[in-house]
Design a protein that fits this description.
Low-confidence stretches: 387-430
CATH superfamily of the largest domain: Transferase(Phosphotransferase) domain 1
CATH class of the largest domain: Mainly Alpha
Strand order of the largest sheet: 4-5-6-7-9-8
Order of helices and strands: EEEEEEEHEEEHHEEEEHHHHHHHHHHH
CATH architecture of the largest domain: Orthogonal Bundle
Mean pLDDT: 83
Strand content: 15-25%
CATH topology of the largest domain: Transferase(Phosphotransferase), domain 1
Number of domains: 2
Length: about 425
């Protein structure tokens, strides 16, 4: 069952919901809240395909508009994306829409938005022809782009969890032959919960199929630029036809740079200049671009943003693991993804806490040298006895003898004794 806010029209699960968290209004049974018509959008309050009642607009983009809706049979809250009428006239756009639906359905991954339905319908207000729509799980949160626009950067412990979850989704997609090709903060949705963010990867409309090349080439033959310039890899910027998962790893590295530095590594006033910089310039080290950026990022992102894909991290999981390791974490991205933000923060604190070394022991008090022996008449040194017949120089004795260490004071006494004997001999000769 669902309840709804009479003021903002948002819907919520009935269990545990009393007041709208957005405006404080008391929530009512959804049938008691009449949808409010939107003068700017005649589709609000209409029913799509006889199953989905459109409640309000929640997002608007170049391809289409996203609505919060109610599935009438199961009384579930869903999100519906409907292509703009002019966009739906283009075969390329319809193919992208179809890819977005079918790829998400095939992946069925906890960090990929779930798609339940995809079809074309007629008889929508103000729409004389077919209207293409896609039904997704409803997500309550915000895009990573909104977070970065508001906060500029995010804390390391939050970023590591986001990247770990994103890497799990990408590695799953790559293993099935899907390359996203349009990774950017706009397509990383963050569902906020008590333990932190749950990442949902959005918009597989630009996906490339690396398994089954007849499908993978279709969009290229139709012909448009795929991807967002700021996040394009060098090979993508060159229009290479054989893109693989490493182009997505590059894009994740750019997102990491932006999350922790506050800006993208390659920036210019137009798309052509951005691509020129991606192809010809080296990324500025994070600590040069922002002196507050963690120094652990410099070497990591230098490798992740190498122009040659062979010299980069080869998989998203490999990059995510290197990110955690750079900050001293133990474990794997799969473990970090399921830890709470508090737990990751505590682990980072423990990893960066340096225990001071124990101080060296105090030096021993100097030992008083023994008194010199009484002077004696000098005598020539006595030759040592000859070695046993059974031993020859360079060979080892036939029996090992335990060696006892000689105390240091004996050597000191011997030196003093030799000096004293020399003095006696000198006086005797004068």
């Amino acid at each position: 069952m669902l309840v709804a806010c009479p003021k903002c029209q948002r819907t919520y699960p009935a269990e545990g919901s009393t007041f709208c968290p957005h405006d404080g209004s008391k929530l009512l049974a959804i049938d008691d809240v009449t949808p409010v018509r939107d003068a700017k959008d005649p589709l609000v309050t209409s029913t799509v395909a006889g199953r989905y009642e459109l409640r309000r607009v929640i997002a608007n983009g170049g391809m289409g508009r996203v609505y919060e809706a109610r599935e009438l049979t199961r009384q579930e809250r869903v999100a519906i994306k409907i292509l703009h009428a002019d966009v739906a006239e283009d075969e390329v756009n319809i193919e992208r829409f179809r890819r977005e639906a079918t790829t998400s359905q095939q992946l069925d991954h906890p960090h990929v938005v779930k798609v339940m339905d995809f079809a074309a319908t007629a008889m929508l207000p103000g729409r004389p022809g077919k209207s293409w729509f896609l039904v997704m799980e409803y997500l309550d949160g915000e895009e990573l782009r909104h977070v970065l626009t508001r906060d500029k950067t995010i804390p390391v412990h939050r970023g590591i969890r986001i990247v770990s979850q994103l890497a799990l989704a990408l590695d799953s997609a790559h293993a099935r032959g899907f390359v996203h090709r349009d990774l950017k903060p706009d397509n990383v949705f963050l569902v906020r919960g008590p333990d932190g963010d749950t990442v949902k990867l959005l918009d597989f409309g630009s996906v490339k199929f690396t398994k089954g090349q007849d499908r993978g080439q279709k969009l290229t033959v139709m012909g448009t630029t795929i991807g967002s310039p700021f996040y394009m890899s060098p090979e993508q910027a060159q229009g290479a036809p054989d893109l693989d998962q490493r182009t997505d790893v590059w894009a994740v590295a750019v997102i990491v740079y932006e999350m922790f530095v506050g800006k993208v590594p390659f920036h210019a006033s137009n798309g052509a200049q951005i691509l020129f910089k991606i192809l010809g310039d080296e990324a500025m080290p994070p600590t040069f671009a922002n002196d507050q950026a963690p120094p652990q990022l410099d070497d990591l992102l230098h490798k992740a943003l190498r122009k040659d894909p062979a010299h980069r991290f080869q998989h998203a999981g490999e990059f995510a693991e290197a990110l955690g390791r750079a900050f001293g974490l133990s474990g794997t991205p799969a473990e970090w993804a399921t830890m709470s933000e508090h737990a990751v923060h505590a682990a980072l604190e423990a990893a960066t806490h340096v225990v001071p070394p124990e101080p060296p022991p105090a030096p021993a008090a100097p030992m008083e040298p023994p008194p010199p022996p009484p002077p004696v008449a000098w005598q020539p040194p006595v030759a040592p006895p000859p070695p046993p017949a059974s031993w020859s120089p360079g060979s080892s004795p036939s029996m090992s003898v335990p060696v006892r260490s000689t105390p240091a004071w004996i050597y000191l006494a011997a030196v003093i004794g030799v000096i004293a004997l020399g003095a006696v001999a000198f006086l005797a000769l004068k």
